[in-house]
Amino acid sequence: MAGTDTGAIVRELLARHGRTYAEEIDVDVPADTAESMFGLLVFALLASARIRTPIAVGAFRALREQGWTSAAALGEASWADRARVLNRSGYARYDESTSRTLGDACAYLLDTYDGDIRRLRDAAERTPDRERVLLQKIKGIGPVGADIFLREAQAAWDELVPYADQRALAAAAELGLPTDPRDLSDLVEREEVPRLVAALVRTRLEHDADDVRQAAAPGG
Fold this sequence. Notes:
By secondary structure, the chain is mostly helical. The chain has 14 helices and no strands. Helix content is 64%, strand content 0%. The radius of gyration is 18 Å and the shape is globular. 39% of the residues are buried.
C-alpha cells in the first residue's frame, strides 16, 4: 500500500487491537501494587504455555475467582485444588504440571521477594536486562514468559519503555513500521506504548496485517 502513511497504520492498529492483556484480565498494572504485579506474573506464566491465549485468560480469571491473588494464597492452595481449577478452564493437558509449577513459583517468590514481585525490580536495580534475567529464575517463566511480563509491566515500570520483543517487532516489520523499539515508541504517547506493543502482538496472532494495511490505506 504505497500511499499508506505510518500514522494511519498506527491508528488502525490501535483501533483494532489496542488493548493490553492486563486490561483484558482486569489487572491494574499502572497502579503497580503487589497484587496487580503478581497477577501479571501469573498470567505471563499461564500464557507462555503452548496453549491459545484465550485459554490462559480464562484460567487466570478462574484462579482469581478462588481468591488466589497473592503468592501466599495461591501457594497455600493444594496442588489438587489448583489442578482442578486449571482443568475446568481448559488446561486438560497441562493442569497437573502447571499446578505444580505455580506452587513452585509462589514458594520462590515468598522465599526470595517476600511474595512481592516488585522487589525483583529493586533487586535488578531497575535495569531491564537484569529484570529479564531474574524473572527467568522463577519456575515456569522462560524467555517467552519474561517477554509477556515485561511488555505489560512497562505500563508501570518506566525503565522498560520501550519494551518490544521479537514477536512485536516482527509484526511491526510486516506493517512497514519502525523495527527499532525507540523509533516505534516515538509513534505514540508514552502511555500508549504498552497498547501499541500489545496491538502488534495481537495482529501477529490474528494474522491480519494485510487487513490493517488495507484499512489504513487512502480510501480503505
